[in-house]
Every structure is written in structure tokens, then in C-alpha cells.
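Hey, resending since the last one bounced:
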Amino acid sequence: MQGFKSKSDRRALYFVKVAWGWTFCLLLPFIALTNYHLTGKAGLVLRRLSTLLVGTAIWYVCTVIFSSVEHYTGSCYQSPALEGLRKEHQNKQQCHQEGGFWHGFDISGHSFLLTFCALMIVEEMAVLHEVKTDRSHSLHTAITGLVVALGFLTLIWVWMFLCTAVYFHNLSQKVFGTLFGLLGWYGTYGFWYLKSFSPGLPPQTSRLNLKQDSYKK
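The C-alpha cells again:
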């Protein structure tokens, strides 16, 4: 397995590790501004913002699962070549502290996180079909800036996903990581968010038309 060796590559690796933090920080104002612009209701905005809490929970649970799988399937070795078994039931942290190399089934957290973050951004940016602001509107600059930032961030996540596919993990670990990302996305936007007892999907034309009709009456 190859890895990033230069300082810039290590910084890029750390950038990916906090991918959910970057995604969270940009989606929070984007969801708040666009949903308030379309609905004008603070309660609905807060409900939609809870998607970020759901995403955080998914990130945390999957991270714990991946760590547990690696722990229970791993062993500590004296070299990266998996030679010289040190202590079969030692955990990863103790293994590294003693200068060993832990080897287990390491589901690709990068594949999971980059897949989930990119798909979530795409789902939330679908609301742009409904958002119409002229250049003089007070929210135009803010929303435009967030759209550019989110688009750029999505490109970074896609690029880093491709780098992960080349440099890290074996095929099965990357496939499992990607499947977890797809499951997190589809389980929320493709299933749960369609239900009434959920944060809901971004505002749609049909709902907005219903709201306008009720105002006219």
C-alpha cells in the first residue's frame, strides 16, 4: 500500500480526515439561507438544519464501526511486511506505542466520508432550482459565494476520492467504505427524508406552489 510522503501530501491527508467538518461548515449557512429565502419560516429552517446532526451521527457511528472492525480483525506485527507477530490481542494504540504495525481489515474511512459528503452536497444544492434572487437582493452575494465554495469543495472530494482509490487500502476495503457512504446517503435522502417524521428534503416546486396558493386564499 502506497501513501502520501511529502509534507503537502500529509496536509492533504489531514484535510480529508476533517472532510465532514468542512462540509458541515459550508452547508450550515447554505441550508439556512436558501431554506429561509424559500419558506420564510424559522421552524422549517431548523428542521432542515437537523440534516447536519443526522450526518454527524452517521459519520460518528460509521467511524466507530470501522475502528471496531479493524480492532477485532487485527494483530500487531514487528514490521510492515507482517512479520514477527508481537502480541495477538494487543490493541492498535498500544501496538503503535511499542513501535509495532497493526494490521486488520481497515474499511476505508476516506472512501466512506468523501462519498457521503459529496452526495450530501449535491442533494442540498438541488434547491438552487427553486432559488431565484436578482443581483440587488441582499442574499444574492452570500448564496452565490456559498455555491462557488460548495462546488469547489465537491470537486476536491471527488479528486481526493480518486487519489484514495489509487494510493490507499485494498479493493475490498475501498468497496466497503464506498458502500457505507452510499448507504448513508440513500438511507437518508432516498428513504427516511421522504417521511413526515424526518428533517425532510430541500424545498420543492410543488410544495412552494401549495404555499403560494394558500396565501392567495
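The radius of gyration is 21 Å.

Sorry for the duplicate.
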